[in-house]
Predict the structure.
Amino acid sequence: MSNQSTENAKAIFLDRDGTLNADSADYIKSVDEFRIFDFTPEALGILTRLGFRNIIITNQSAVSRGMITTEILDRMHAKLKSAIQPAGAVIDGIYICPHLPEDNCDCRKPRTANLEKAVRDFQIDVNRSYFIGDSFKDIQTGAALNCRTIFVCTGIDSPPIKVINQWRPRPDYIVENLLEAAKLIEYMGKNRKP
Ligand SMILES: [Mg+2]
Ligand SMILES: [Zn+2]
C-alpha cells in the first residue's frame, strides 16, 4: 500500500446501455425508460471497493437525433448515482458521444477519443484496467488502448458465444452480466502473482 500514491490509477471503463441498464432498440428517451439492472449497484460496489475508478464511456446519438437533451441524460445519471450509492459504489466519470454515426467524430465508439480523454483526466494505467460492454464496438474500443476486455451478455440480441469467439479483437472474457464481471475481476486480483 505504501507505494500506491506513485502508481497510476486503475479503471473500469463501462459501456452504459445493455451493461448497466436495460437497452432498447427504440433508444432510451426518458428517466423512466432508464432501467438500471438489479445487480448493477452490487457490481459497482465491488469494483469501487477494489480501488477502481468507474468511468462510463457511452454513445448517445439520441442527443443529435433530437430525441433527448443532455439535461435528461444528466437526470438519468443522477438516478444511477443515487441507485448505486447505498451499495458504496461511485461513478467517477461519464464521457458521452452525442454525435451521429455519419458525423464521423473521433469520440463515437469504436473510436477512442473519449476513452483517451478519460485515461488522461484520471491518469489511468490501461494495463491494470478493464473495458466492459455488451457490443463488439466496446471490445474494439478497450482493446485499442490495451485494456483487458469483458463482454457481458445482457444486451439486446446478444450474439452466440460461437460468434463472439470469431471477433477480432475478441473479448478476453465473456460473462453473463456485470456482477459476474466484478466477481471475476475480484477473483483475478486475489490470485495475482506478485
Ligand atoms: Mg451497450
Ligand atoms: Zn462523438
